[in-house]
Specification:
The complex is a heterodimer of chains A (about 525) and B (about 150).
Chain A: E1 6-11, H1 15-25, E2 31-34, E3 76-79, H2 111-115, H3 125-139, H4 163-176, E4 181-182, H5 220-226, E5 230-232, E6 236-242, E7 248-254, E8 260-270, H6 273-283, E9 309-315, E10 331-333, E11 349-354, H7 359-368, H8 378-385, E12 389-396, E13 405-413, E14 419-424, H9 429-448, E15 453-457, E16 494-496, H10 511-527
Parallel strand pairs in A: 1-2, 1-8, 2-5, 3-14, 8-16
Antiparallel strand pairs in A: 4-10, 6-7, 7-8, 9-12, 9-15, 10-11, 11-12, 13-14
Helix pairs in contact in A: 1-5, 1-10, 3-10, 4-9
Chain B: H1 4-20, H2 38-45, H3 49-65, H4 76-89, H5 92-105, H6 109-114, H7 138-141
Helix pairs in contact in B: 2-5, 3-4
The chains are: A alpha/beta (about 525), B mainly alpha (about 150).
The complex binds flavin-adenine dinucleotide (FAD) and iron/sulfur cluster (SF4).
Amino acid sequence: MSEEIADVLIIGAGAAGAAIAWSLAETRMRIVCLEQGDWMNPADYPTSRSDWEMDRFGAFGLSPNGRGRAEDYPVNDDDSPIKISNFNAVGGSTILYAAHFPRMHPSDFRVRTLDGVADDWPVDYATLEPYYDQNAQMMGVAGLAGDPAYPPKEPTLPPVPFGKLGDTLGRGFEKLGWHWWPSDSAIATEEHAGRAPCVNLGPCIMGCAQGAKGSTDVTYWPVAVREGVELRTRCRVREITVDENGMADGAIYLDANGVEQKQKAEIVIVACNGVGTPRLLLNSCSSRFPDGLANSSGLVGKNLMFHPYAMVTGIFEERLDGWKGPTGCCLISQEFYETDPSLDFVRGYSFEMLRGMGPVSTALFGMGTGRLPWGADHHEAYAQIWDRTAGMVIICEDLPEEHNQVTLDPELTDGDGIPAPKITYQLSENSRRMLDHAVTRGTEILEAAGAVETLSEAPLPPAGWHLMGTARMGTDPKRSVVDSWCRSHDVKNLFIVDGSVFVTSGGVNPTNTIQALALYVADKIKKNLTNLFE
Amino acid sequence: MSDPQANDEIRALSNLIDVLLPASADGLMPAAGSLGLAAPLREKLGDAWPATVSGLDACETVARAGGAGAFASLSQQEATAVLEQVAADDPAFLGGLVFNLYAAYYQHPVVVEALGLEARPPYPGGYPLEQGDLSQLERVRNGPRRYREC
Ligand SMILES: Cc1cc2nc3c(=O)[nH]c(=O)nc-3n(C[C@H](O)[C@H](O)[C@H](O)COP(=O)(O)OP(=O)(O)OC[C@H]3O[C@@H](n4cnc5c(N)ncnc54)[C@H](O)[C@@H]3O)c2cc1C
Ligand code: SF4
């Protein structure tokens, strides 16, 4: 048992845990963060090796079920067409993320008022705007000012280069007269805060050996640790404990040797992501909270939202130089982002343009899509696809539905015997219609850009990487888990700061908003320290 | 490797992968066997190796039954016909083998260079990438606001 009581205990050192730890550090409170994973060594990232492309089937795979890392916990996602992708380490899933870093739109916080669906958020864009700006400094956001899809904003760094591939796709958008813009990306396109500039290695989703990608192990954490936050790795929290007054008083965790430890704390902040957080709350049962901690609404784990993804790939006649440059950060289109009453679905989506593929991935893509025979015709067929693919993923807004949920699996456990999460998820009719529309329109773009052939997949099975809604914000304790500053309605010294608190999902990648919210909550805590528990 | 049977198996695998990935007609892309990929591929196949050996035996049997002689002596066209027949009888035979072969072939330095890339890992050298034509964005930049004020 740790002797000292922490003022603040943060559980999870990913995108959100890092941001809130850094912001709270200036208070000089005693802050401890428990993280089940370890620090990553950039020298271990695949791009330092010739066989780098195959690591996506091994230690740098997307699914925690196939990676074989002791730090991971298994997830039963058999009952979902979309499978969980994450990473467990200092930096959390930002170790693997593509660093595509858009903000949500002002309308995303007002979906009930504007479009009559789901619920409005108890915060709005204007409230989060200064925190988006603060996050842009800390994460190092590259982009280009002047995008008419957003209220004015100033990126910190110059945009990620388009290269020939981006230019080609841009011409497609211009032909159609649609919206497109260089993506906001958490990528240091110039040296930034000690981070070396991006050298266009390509596969950012297997970890950035250069340290240019804004994963929080190279952005927030080094500063937070320097400022005095204690980050304890290989510590897997089993449950949050409560005192006789129903206040959180710490956590029980298993250390690297599997030995049970306890950390006492005055304030507990959960940042384990949209699956890890409900899992932990549901595992934290007591006589006072028999259905799990902070769960008087019964909504912990409910309303799970992913972004249903589609992928459309085009094959071009000319070479595109697409094997280099940040994978997911080229350009974005929000032509169909805002609700359009003439369409057969509500809300909307973003097109996010992707780079091409390396030599091995090209061959496996050709094999998987049946266009690459072995034998005498192989080389001619390969030449038709090598460096001639470009495409997009399409990020559709998911709306909350209670039957989409995270529960505890009755049998599956992690390496420490702690019950593992089970995902139950179905695509809604609205999502299906949106995906159909998106694939048709995405195909149009690629054809306008010169693709001679296109193919698509929707929903994209491994795209369970945006995890939201499972401990939602709201003003009504019966219909939400946390209040407008992410404090539990039931347990006044318990905060949740990851994607779990999202009321709706927007149609963009969530991490920038997750972190802006975490910084906002940190400020609220700092301003209310004297009457925090009232 | 000193075991004669193992040597024979590797030779047979090398013949087979030459059929799966022969040299390209223009000579730019080498045949897979000529790159010495058979031995590392055998390692990679691990538990699937016995099934691969059965497939190699089946190729030999079918080739000889057709009266054309040993599998290794067949033309590309004849060998392809034999392989197609064996694969039809045992659909699992080629799947894992071709997957691992493509992975090994397309990361081999000779092949990577033939594709126009430098034969090295991406890091630390990285690659230059031109900024691209941002002036294409003028129409969008000067267009109407696209978000809802609220
Ligand atoms: C392949 C991939 C690509 C992605 N691309 C993008 C993108 O381009 N843009 C974008 O915005 N988002 C992207 N994402 C999503 C992004 O990574 C997440 O939105 C973000 O990391 C979520 O932050 P978080 O802090 O909520 O959770 P995480 O970053 O997942 O961190 C949670 C941390 O909590 C720890 N933890 C969990 N349970 C426990 C426990 N019981 N005890 C101790 N520690 C625990 C975990 O080990 C983990 O480190 C991507 C994700 C993946 C996997
Ligand atoms: S492309 Fe840039 S950000 Fe991505 S892995 Fe390479 S150096 Fe890092």
